[in-house]
Amino acid sequence: MPGITSIAYKNLRRKRTRTALTILGIALSTWVLISLLGFNQGYERSLNSDIDNLGFQVLLTAKGCPYEAATLMMQGGSGLRYMPESVLDSLRAYPEVQSLTPMLMQAVFDPSVGETGAIAAYNGVDPATFPAMRSYLEFAQGEWFNEDGAMEAVIGFEAAELEQREVGDVILIPDKEVELVVVGILKRSGTQDDGTIFVPYKALQKIFGVEDQLTSVGIKVSKETDVNAFEEKLYSLPDVQVVSMAQVKSTISNLVSTARVMVMSIAIIAILIAMVGVMNTILMSVLERFQEIGIMKSMGASQAHIFRLIWSETAILCLLGGIIGALAALGLSAFTEALIRNVLPFSPKGSLILIDLSLVLRSIAIIVGIGFLSGIYPAWKAARIRPIEAIRNSEGDL
Amino acid sequence: MKVITATNFSKTFKRGTEAIHAVDKVNVEITSGEFVSFVGPSGSGKTTLLHLLGCLDTPSEGHLSIDGQIVFGNSKSLSEKEMTHIRRKAFGYIFQKFYLIPTLTVQENILLPFAFNKGSSQPYDIKKIASDLGLEHRLRHLPKEISGGEMQRVAIARALVNNPRIILADEPTGNLDSKRSDEIADILTNLNQHEGKTIILVTHNPVLAARASRVIELVDGRIS
């Protein structure tokens, strides 16, 4: 005995090209939707994990533009304004401060790196405090330097790979005529540390002639501290800029919000186009089967039966399109991620697109839900066909 | 026992400002087990009358009772839902153009009414119907793979599968050659004489009309 769903399915096979194109439209919009929602949650997570991996909640820099400060915090870029090292003593006086780590960032163009040269980023760190804050860093070879002023370096995974360095090698800082001995090579961490060359900050001060100067201080606050209130207090120090995790997150979120809005608009338009396609396909199919539907009604099909029949066709289209789109989103997530990285002003290191089962199911439910909405009009039109009209006329009209 | 009673039954269509009385104050009674033919020239209103009696269309005025239940009347008419129920239970329809669903097999076409009537208590045995109508080897075929005569037999099987008491047939041999027409006439006669079905037939075919126990001639929407 044919069920209503089986009649609906067989009807969709009648015009295979039209059905396939409609499913393709739904699949594309599902792909865009899942990738977008996956991006929303993946980006958030990667950004949080990047910031958590910094090991400190507040970064103190010399006074400057907050965007520069944010970039400095995330990328280790060269927002090269300095503050005196004596700021460390002032900071230690605050009861909220659990630990401190002074940093001196320097960046130099090194023509010998790769084929066209590259910027080499040096991060001067304190061997006594920095390793404890970045406890997640692991060594592929060697270990941290021990002395404040040692002419030694620890190289991040990517920097070591690019320059093909091993422990014991000597690296030359361009224009400075200074040699550093590589004492450690880090494993890949998935953070900006992978591209950094760590040097004891005292040594870096000497090499670049900026004695007693720092670019930033990482501050780990004690657990019960109200970070916002603490930030306010820090502004009593002269010529400093305070950057907190919350600020960095919101600054970066602002930077990418335009891109998000754009992608979201594209997704909504894609879904709308697909849904108009579904409505058109189903409506055409109803009009072509005007007589068949009328004959079914003469056999005792009620309005509800016909409504269900047409709705089943919509559901089958949307479900198939949704599943294909979800598989495409999963299979092509690396490609989508590369595409998104290309348009974003800042991307965290971790995976940008996070697609899990709940997201896939939610997205398919959204697509099927919207599909049901677009199926209402054709189903209602079909349900209202009177058998006598169908027998008299071979085709319906709108 | 009266199965259909139509009194003062009319159907008027409007074409521009002109009113066309397709069925004009017709009185007709059909008793259970009767085989009635409506004959008449084209445009005489016989098909419209069949549609009205089969609850496929609504009259402009008049009364109609099916099995004693008032379907249309001055004071009360049945709702669309109740009409659907009557169509499902009382009638089996056979049309000139067969109207088979091309994507369904012969068997699925025959069983199609069950898709809309799952609680049917006394369905016909599909194998018996198929063998009575010579379709047993065609059950897995699609409509496009069978002949016109076979298509009409499938349509008859579909009309019978719900075990209706009344079969309404509108020009059932209109698309068939004389040999196939005779086959269909034999089937209808057999259904009437051996299965007790009430048959109401509209036809131009005098040979087929002659099979009926009563022939009613319509001219200009009236019984002549």
What would you note in describing this structure?
The complex is a heterodimer of chains A (398) and B (224). Chain A contains 14 helices and 12 strands. Chain A has 398 residues and is α+β, with helices and mostly antiparallel strands. Chain A folds into 2 domains: 4-49 and 252-392, no CATH class; 64-238, no CATH class. In chain A, strands 1, 3, 4, 5, 6, 7, 8, 9, 11 and 12 form a 10-stranded mixed sheet that branches. In chain A, helix 2 (16-52) packs antiparallel against helix 9. Chain A is elongated and about 100 Å long. By secondary structure, chain B is of the alpha/beta class. Chain B has one domain (2-223): P-loop containing nucleotide triphosphate hydrolases (Rossmann fold, 3-Layer(aba) Sandwich), CATH 3.40.50.300. In chain B, strands 6-7-8-3-9-10 form a 6-stranded mixed sheet, with helices on both faces. In chain B, strands 2-1-4-5 form a 4-stranded antiparallel sheet. The radius of gyration of chain B is 17 Å and the shape is globular. In chain B, 50% of the residues are buried. The chains are: A alpha+beta (398), B alpha/beta (224). The interface between A and B is medium-sized, with 24 and 28 residues.
Q: Which secondary structure elements does this structure contain, and how are they paired or packed?
A:
The complex is a heterodimer of chains A (398) and B (224).
Chain A: H1 4-12, H2 16-52, E1 58-62, H3 66-75, E2 83-84, H4 87-92, E3 97-110, E4 118-125, H5 130-133, E5 139-142, E6 152-155, H6 157-163, E7 170-173, E8 178-186, E9 196-200, H7 201-208, E10 213-214, E11 216-221, H8 227-234, E12 240-244, H9 245-288, H10 290-298, H11 303-331, H12 333-343, H13 357-383, H14 387-392
Parallel strand pairs in A: 4-9, 6-8
Antiparallel strand pairs in A: 1-11, 1-12, 2-10, 3-4, 3-11, 5-8, 6-9, 7-8
Chain B: E1 2-15, E2 18-31, E3 35-39, H1 46-53, E4 61-66, E5 69-72, H2 80-90, E6 91-94, H3 106-115, H4 126-132, H5 148-160, E7 166-170, H6 178-195, E8 198-202, H7 206-209, E9 214-219, E10 222-223
Parallel strand pairs in B: 3-8, 3-9, 6-7, 7-8
Antiparallel strand pairs in B: 1-2, 1-4, 4-5, 9-10
Helix pairs in contact in B: 3-5, 5-6
